[in-house]
Amino acid sequence: MSNSAPVNPLSSAPGYTLIKTLGSGAFGSVLLYRRQLSPGGPVEEVAVKVIARDECADFNLVSREVHSHRQLVHPHVIRFKRLGLSPDKRFLYMVMEYADRGDLLDYLRKRGRFREHEARWFFQQLVFGLDYCHQRGVVNRDLKPENLLLKRTPDARQELTQGDLEHPFNLHLKIADFGLSKEGVHSAPKSRVGTVTYMAPEVLRAGPSRRYDGHKADIWSAGIVLYVMLFARAPFDDPLAATDKARRDATMSQILRGEWTAPASMPVTPECMDLLRGILCADPAQRLSLSAIMSHPWFSVGLPPAALTMNTVLVRQQTVTPPPYEQSVEEVNAVLAEANRRGGGGPGGPGGEMSESGFMTMIEDELEEEQRRGNAPYMVETTYQQQGHGHGAARR
Ligand SMILES: Nc1ncnc2c1ncn2[C@@H]1O[C@H](COP(=O)(O)OP(=O)(O)OP(=O)(O)O)[C@@H](O)[C@H]1O
């Protein structure tokens, strides 16, 4: 969290009561609020990501992020609710659905590696959430257990799980963080050490003239998440390396070689290994697609047939009849325009810096050009990044 991180930026916003700080990232802090939109109306807990305006280097990125996230309405994606400016105008804030059980990494640390059926439960949810995002044209680019949040299911039942309300089957997984992360533009490259763990080989190899398909890269990252859930370690790593840099370099060269093994002491079924091999395949052209993953025998255990077509149906429905958004596009744009106004400390304001952000905007513009030409949203990678770095139906 930055030094100027707010204690309670919404203290004078009507309807918002601060409960506690949930944590902080390179971009700002995330606070838990109780909110009541109208007197006598329903009360809900929400997670609020707060960004100091004078520290926000690129409002274009915020805008893209908000517009991508806002349109994603799915049981396995954290719901975006609203963008606002604090009453004193110093902070931009994003109100989101609150995931009350922390992230998958902390959960794994607490419980140790998952049994196969538990890993499958979470992996099914991740794949359905990811497939939905891809169908809506959003590539995540930053999938990792820290960005997969957990929330207790509304129908958590003790009898299914021997009284264990924290059992995986009582938790829903939700994809969070669609770009306002340190992989974006807001932290120095050094602070990104370690994040290479989830990066696909083609991402590491990419350069200004060497592009990669973000969909395939997301699938690779999802495969690493599955491996980590099963074995409580990453497939590419050198934990005995003397320094962080040596560890990162070793990890990168292992990823580029595409060589990995499963620990012999932790056997998994042949079906599970077959799926892992299909996903953690260094050649993106040979890597399983999401639909191939969904029809894999290991993946489909316990799934009602409707689960496999749910996203297509949902996306079609949402295209015809947009889901009820809390805030219209015009309202979001008005907040962004106000936040970006000169003199407010934004990119054009006093002290605004365009170095990294200007660079990234250029990259994003190339991305848009690709999309205009009708290509899939390819990510244009740069040395900048190389340095840095319920659907409910799935319940068994
Ligand atoms: N919707 C949410 N519900 C519950 N907790 C959340 C939510 N969003 C974020 N958090 C928690 O708030 C903390 C800070 O999140 P944030 O996304 O700002 O940082 P990060 O992911 O740790 O780092 P970075 O953004 O730099 O990658 C994390 O512990 C995260 O789990």
Explain the overall architecture.
It comes from Gonium pectorale (Green alga). A hairpin with a 5-residue loop joins strand 4 (about 80-85) and strand 5. The chain is an alpha+beta fold and about 400 residues long. The chain has helices at about 60-70, 105-110, 115-135, 200-205, 215-230, 245-255, 270-280, 290-295, 305-320, 330-340, 355-370, 385, and strands at about 15-25, 30-35, 45-50, 80-85, 90-95, 150, 170-175, 210-215, 380. It has two domains: about 15-95 and about 325-340, Phosphorylase Kinase, domain 1 (2-Layer Sandwich); about 105-315 and about 360-390, Transferase(Phosphotransferase) domain 1 (Transferase(Phosphotransferase), domain 1, Orthogonal Bundle), CATH 1.10.510. The two termini are about 40 Å apart. The longest helix has 20 residues, at about 115-135. Helix 3 (about 115-135) packs parallel to helix 9 (about 305-320). Bound molecules: adenosine-5'-triphosphate.
